[in-house]
Amino acid sequence: MASGQSMVIMIVFVIMIFGGLAVFLLSISQTVSQKEYHNLYVHNLLLSVMRTDTGYTDPNCKLVSDTLGCAFTQSTEYKCGGSGEPCIELANGTLTNYMDRFELVKKNFRYLFIAKPETGVRIDPETGEPLVVRIGDKSLETARIDKLKTVYIIPKFLATGPYNIVVELFLAEK
Amino acid sequence: MRLRKRLKAQHEIMEYVILTLFIVIIIIGFVFFLSGWNITQLQLDKEKARQDRALFIMKYFLSSPLFTKENSVFDDTKLDAFRSLPNECTELGKIIGENWFAEIETFNGAKWEMCTQNKNYSAYIVPANVYRKFTDKAELGTLKVGVYG
């Protein structure tokens, strides 16, 4: 009887040792990280979208980055090309349209663009608050989740000196 | 009495045989597990090497003045010129190696394919611009780089 018990204990002991080793090996096993690829992707995404033409020849609205810059440097009545859309609306429409074309983003990610002046503020005449352009999923700004982030600076020059606009892009998995 | 002793001895031998059998089964199972684990790790290493190579080629394409107007903005005239070269893949292969392909595509439908073959591959896609000289516009598109094998 005692011999049978010690046999069972021994078997359990051996199983525990090998089981522990297996768990240890599984825990140290490496996986292929997509981090570098995702960082490159998000960086290029912001860069490419900002440098894409909007279809306007007006220098304030030629590229997507120009329309965002225009939103902070021109009056709110300013219309692209004289009779087109206001800069903020054009930036919003084009950015949303362009982001929808990327399958990876559309299927797997939520995104948020935040554009604001690097220094100083511009007051939004409608709200009386400092103007900050947010396009995309606004909940991402405060969400405490893993986010990919990249920054693009739009250099602008006013009579008072350089006036840079900082554009941040956040991506988070759906 | 003697029979009882003999039976007890046989019983103990059986216990040891069963114990040994169990331990051998556990060891064989563990050997199989270790082999599987090793194979998986080797496959992951291979996949990682393939990913590193694809990302290296991707970065090369995005920054090479041979194809781009500025970083991440491809120039359509340079892409056309490259495609018209004889042995373009062999020549580029001297810099970035063999067994890869690249596809640059705009969302307006223009596409440039380089060194494509009919083989298994793993590929990565990143956003990029293509500057169209004729219209003087930067179009939005993608760069797809794949590694064969």
Folded structure, characterized:
- The complex is a heterodimer of chains A (174) and B (149).
- In chain A, strands 2-1-6-3 form a 4-stranded antiparallel beta sheet.
- Chain A is elongated and about 95 Å long.
- Chain A has 174 residues and is an alpha+beta fold.
- Chain A has 2 domains: 1-30; 34-173, no CATH class.
- Chain A has helices at residues 2-28, 35-50, 64-73, 87-100, 103-108; strands spanning 109-117, 133-136, 148-154, 157-158, 161-162, 165-173.
- Chain A is 42% helix and 19% strand.
- The mean pLDDT of chain A is 87.
- In chain A, a hairpin with a 2-residue loop joins strand 4 and strand 5.
- Chain B has one domain (2-148).
- By secondary structure, chain B is α+β, with helices and mostly antiparallel strands.
- In chain B, strand 3 (100-106) and strand 4 form a beta hairpin.
- Chain B is 53% helix and 28% strand.
- Chain B is rod-shaped.
- Chain B has a 6-stranded mixed beta sheet with strand order 1-2-5-6-3-4.
- Chain B has helices spanning 2-63, 76-83, 88-96, and strands spanning 68-70, 73-75, 100-106, 111-114, 121-132, 137-148.
- The model of chain B has no long low-confidence stretch (mean pLDDT 90).
- Classes of the chains: A alpha+beta (174), B alpha+beta (149).
- The interface between A and B is large, with 33 and 39 residues.
